[in-house]
Amino acid sequence: MRIIFRCSNCEVINDIPIKYQFRLCRNCGRIVTYAPREAIISEEDSKDIFFQSRQLSDSLAVEFFNLADIAENSIVDLIKEHEKKQTPLLDLHAATLTDTILLILEKGTTNELDELIRNCSNFNISIPELEKIVIKFRKEGIVFLPKGWLIDLI
Q1: What structural domains does the chain harbor?
Q2: Whose CB among 49, 69, 140, 149 lies 3.0–4.6 Å from 20's, allowing a Cys bridge?
Q3: Which residues contact 130 (CB under 8 A, 6 or more apart)?
Q4: Quick check: 13 and 56 in contact, CB under 8 A?
Q5: Is the whole model's pTM more than 0.90, yes or no?
Q6: d(C-alpha 96, C-alpha 117), whole Å
Q7: DSSP-assigned beta bridge partners for residue 13
């Protein structure tokens, strides 16, 4: 199962497996997540018309948001589950924000963007700050993204 939702920045339709909360938008590269009344839960092959459209036409938007209203309670429950997830506290000693994020990537237990964001929040690193550094890391060839919700060091 997956979640289909619009990027709050560029309005392009994105998808994400149901066990993840965050991903990098496939169009603008911003870190995005889904919200109640703006996302639907989809079986792997159903609802592909929305995902393939990239941006919703007027008729698709009506259909999408009708489905999003129906899925609201399920989406709220998923968000609550994600908020309960814990990550182990990392003991890091870094001089700069960039070094801290690099150490979090090195010492993290998974390559999930969700875990990176949770670990960064423990060090009071905001999503916009993280986003800038991830974009910089991608340009410099320090990280690659096998999927929009996974991030690996090269």
Answers
A1: 2-84 (no CATH), 97-153 (1.10.10.10)
A2: 149
A3: 31, 101, 116, 117, 120
A4: yes
A5: no
A6: 17
A7: 6
From residue 147, alpha-carbon distances to 11, 35, 57, 121, 137 in Å are 19, 20, 26, 22, 16
Per-residue pLDDT of 90-100, as tens digits, reads: 778 778 999 99
Residue in 2, 5, 113, 1 with CA at minimum distance from that of residue 54:
5
Joined tokens for residue 79: 């968000």
